[in-house]
Design a protein that fits this description.
- The complex is a heterodimer of chains A (197) and B (201).
- Chain A has helices at residues 2-49, 170-191; strands spanning 56-62, 65-71, 79-89, 94-102, 107-114, 128-131, 134-137.
- By secondary structure, chain A is α+β, with helices and mostly antiparallel strands.
- Chain A has a 5-stranded antiparallel β-sheet. A two-stranded antiparallel sheet of chain A has the order 6-7.
- The longest helix of chain A is centred in the N-terminal third of the chain and has 48 residues, at 2-49.
- Chain A starts with a helix and ends in a 6-residue tail after the last helix.
- Chain B is mainly alpha-helical and 201 residues long.
- Chain B has one domain (2-145).
- In chain B, 71% of the residues lie in helices and 2% in strands.
- Chain B has helices at residues 2-9, 24-30, 34-58, 67-89, 91-97, 101-104, 108-118, 123-153, 175-200, and strands spanning 155-156, 159-160.
- A two-stranded antiparallel sheet of chain B has the order 1-2.
- In chain B, β1 and β2 (159-160) form a beta hairpin.
- Chain B starts with a helix and ends with a helix.
- Classes of the chains: A alpha+beta (197), B mainly alpha (201).
- Chains A and B meet through α1 of A and α4 of B.
Chain lengths: 197, 201
């Protein structure tokens, strides 16, 4: 019996040791590549939401607020727009939406980069549908809007040009709307001094 | 001939979901759309193939009493290897299948086949078994997802089938819909079996 226990431990240790060695080696090999992909993905998404004439992107961080500056020339002298991520507490996840603006802080692009909302309900924030009489992705309703012009129809029945909330997903709709509005104000404040630096 | 039998049994006779009833957790979770079902099925099949192959090769080295923890280590490592390799070298595939990979670790089919088949058979039958079980799993998931997506969203593979005027039964793509669909399908297959047995009598 005692012999067996030693034998079992040795065999299990060898198997685990093998696994650890393989995984450690693989992790070392793949980590830089995976990081690169993640970076590319974010950069591509940032380019997608920014004004079309943006050719160079620079990442900046002030007081824990991360944003991207888009330049319309390679020398990075002409600022064409900004982008940042808006975080909104949805129904079952923290929704992350990338928003891009031009220099007048009019939204030029939006893209959901992370969400785990209810499939078929809240998940429709990044799906095609018919909103305000137009076939479009739900979150694209924000394009062309300014911070003082973002209202959800459910909460502001008296306003015009509102964002049409998703049926059965008011919480997700509200979360995104609130987050984008709030983040836009923050982005405006944080980027105020950049031009004069 | 023998290999063909091992392959075919996973599709209907010993279908992992409708017959052996293993791996129901991920089954219920991912069958809200056909696209998800295919993704999960393919990812699980691949891990099954890797784990069955490894275990059939090292089965002689593992003492009987510690076979389960050993299999778990092998399976968990295989899943992680698949996840890392896919993330590094096939990023677009990882984007669509990546969310399913961590779920595979807890998929009982993998451990079930390791224990019931690969630990007693040679490499090639184990590969045939893995492919058959993987295919059976994928087909079963697709069948479940087909009904759920069709009724719950009016679409199949994202293509609108039932028309704009159809009002989706949201319940079907929510968790209760998974239980209802699975229950009805299981009942249907059992009913077919009983009918067949009665005929033979």
């Amino acid at each position: 019996m005692k012999n067996n226990i030693i034998k079992f431990s040795v065999v299990l240790t060898i198997i685990t040791g093998f696994s650890v060695a393989i995984l450690a080696f693989l992790n070392l090999k793949t980590q830089p590549l995976i990081q690169q992909h993640r970076l590319d993905e974010i950069n591509n998404a940032v380019k997608e939401v920014m004004p079309q004439d943006v050719v160079q992107i620079e990442k900046k961080e002030t007081d824990g607020f991360t944003f991207y500056i888009g330049y319309s020339d390679d020398q990075k002298t002409n600022i064409a727009g900004y982008a940042t991520i808006a975080y909104g507490k949805g129904y079952s996840s923290v929704i992350q939406a990338l928003i891009g603006v031009d220099t007048t802080f009019t939204i030029t692009g939006t893209k959901v980069i992370f969400q785990q909302e209810t499939p078929g309900l809240g998940s429709k924030i990044e799906a095609m549908g018919k909103y305000n009489g137009k076939k479009q992705i739900w979150i694209h309703q924000f394009i062309g809007k300014k911070e003082n012009n973002i209202f959800l129809d459910k909460d502001n029945p008296d306003k015009e040009n509102t964002i049409q909330a998703l049926t059965g997903a008011t919480i997700s709709s509200r979360a995104v709307t609130k987050a984008i509005k709030k983040t836009l104000v923050e982005l405006k404040n944080k980027t105020q001094n950049i031009g004069s630096e | 001939m023998e290999l063909k039998k091992e392959f075919l049994k996973g599709i209907y006779k010993e279908n992992p979901i409708f017959r052996i009833m293993l791996g129901l957790c991920p089954t219920l979770a991912v069958t809200s759309s056909v696209e998800n079902a295919i993704g999960m099925g393919l990812a699980a099949s691949f891990v099954l193939l890797v784990s069955n192959s490894i275990i059939s090769l090292i089965k002689g080295l593992i003492p009987d009493k510690i076979r389960i923890p050993s299999y778990i280590v092998v399976i968990a490592s295989a899943v992680t290897v698949v996840d890392l390799v896919m993330a590094a070298y096939l990023p677009s595939l990882h984007k669509s299948l990546g969310i399913f990979v961590p779920l595979i670790v807890v998929n009982c089919i993998i451990l079930g086949r390791a224990e019931a088949f690969a630990s007693k058979n040679k490499l090639f039958p184990s590969i045939a078994d893995a492919l058959g079980m993987g295919l059976g799993f994928t087909l079963a998931l697709m069948l479940l997802a087909f009904f759920r997506e069709l009724l719950g969203n009016g679409t199949v593979l994202g293509i609108n089938i039932l028309g704009e005027s159809y009002k989706p039964v949201l319940l079907m793509i929510l968790p209760p819909g998974a239980f209802l669909t699975l229950g009805l399908l299981l009942g249907f297959f059992n009913f077919m079996d009983i009918k067949k047995q009665n005929k033979e009598k």
